[in-house]
């Protein structure tokens, strides 16, 4: 059992967390590191240790994060026992690559928040910031809240407008159209780039690069784009349900960050505002 604390426990907005699972897995490292910035974290690998922690009167977590590496790692009965031991805590299922499609083929835990590892940099970061700031958060809703209710609660008006030019690199006109409409609604100007043509553009604050997979055929245009633009312009690569190795290949090809598809516009802007220098 490990314990980390970066904010004072006297801080009423510190987000205390019980982590259960293997944080050494590549797909969970970013999520685990981000929790340390928001409050006290007690980390357990074994279920029995987690129950012992919750039995202590000195620790009442706001969140219980279950880092599930494969379907069925934590049974519904186990989750119910954790919930009974900490009835005020929100249960967040952080799902690894092998858990894709579990909602269709398995038995998802009832009354639990579900987030895939590749969604954490956008959604997880945003929800933790909201909890720490004491403002409305989709994760602060009751455990019985539906996915629709969480989506509504998590959609908040932008506190700032974007500025500058965003280039959208995609072969598909429909993808360009909806990304362009979204970016313009935020205040960004947009221009389309073609993956099969040299990138001749000046003044872009960021590039959205659309791809399906991280195979060599789709990464070759990304490498060429990075060569054309140099190192100063951030490139956000959007991949379909990426695995850890997909993200690594895209980063090696020149991406600055990975966005998973399908995505929420809030996740897109969480990254875009940060990399384009418009974060509030």
Main sheet strand line-up: 1-3-2-4-5-6
What is the CATH topology classification name of the largest domain?
Answer: Rossmann fold
Give the overall silhouette: elongated
Q: N-to-C SSE series?
A: EEHEHEHEHEHHEHEEHEHEH
Rg, Cα atoms, Å: 20 Å
How many strands, what sense, and barrel or not for the largest sheet? 6 strands, mixed
Tell me the CATH superfamily of the largest domain: Response regulator
Give the total of beta strands: 11
Question: In angstroms, what separates the terminal alpha carbons?
Answer: 36 Å
Strand portion, in percent?
Answer: 15-25%
Count of folded domains: 2
Summed up, the helix count is 10
Sequence stretches where pLDDT stays below 50 over 5 or more residues: 5-10
CATH architecture descriptor name of the largest domain: 3-Layer(aba) Sandwich
What is the percent of helical residues? 25-40%
């Amino acid at each position: 059992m490990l314990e980390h604390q970066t904010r004072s426990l006297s801080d009423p907005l510190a987000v205390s967390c019980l982590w259960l699972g293997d944080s050494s897995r590549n797909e969970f490292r970013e999520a685990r590191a981000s929790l340390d910035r928001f409050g006290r974290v007690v980390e357990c690998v074994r279920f029995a240790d987690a129950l012992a922690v919750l039995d202590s009167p000195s620790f009442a977590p706001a969140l219980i994060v279950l880092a599930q590496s494969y379907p069925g790692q934590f049974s519904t009965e186990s989750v119910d026992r954790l919930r009974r031991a900490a009835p005020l805590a929100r249960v967040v299922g952080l799902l690894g690559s092998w858990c894709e499609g579990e909602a269709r083929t398995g038995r998802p835990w009832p009354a639990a928040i579900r987030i895939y590892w590749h969604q954490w940099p956008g959604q997880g970061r945003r929800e933790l910031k909201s909890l720490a700031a004491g403002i409305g958060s989709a994760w602060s809703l009751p455990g019985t809240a539906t996915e629709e209710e969480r989506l509504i609660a998590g959609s908040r008006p932008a506190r700032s407008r974007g500025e500058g030019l965003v280039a959208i690199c995609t072969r598909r006109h429909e993808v360009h159209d909806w990304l362009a409409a979204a970016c313009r609604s935020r205040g960004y100007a947009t221009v389309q780039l073609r993956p099969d043509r040299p990138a001749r553009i000046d003044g872009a604050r960021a590039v959205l690069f659309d791809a399906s997979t991280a195979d060599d055929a789709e990464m070759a245009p990304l490498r060429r784009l990075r060569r054309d633009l140099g190192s100063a312009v951030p490139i956000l690569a959007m991949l379909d349900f990426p695995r850890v190795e997909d993200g690594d290949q895209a980063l090696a090809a020149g991406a600055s960050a990975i966005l998973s598809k399908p995505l929420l516009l809030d996740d897109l802007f969480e990254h875009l505002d940060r990399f384009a220098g418009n974060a509030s």
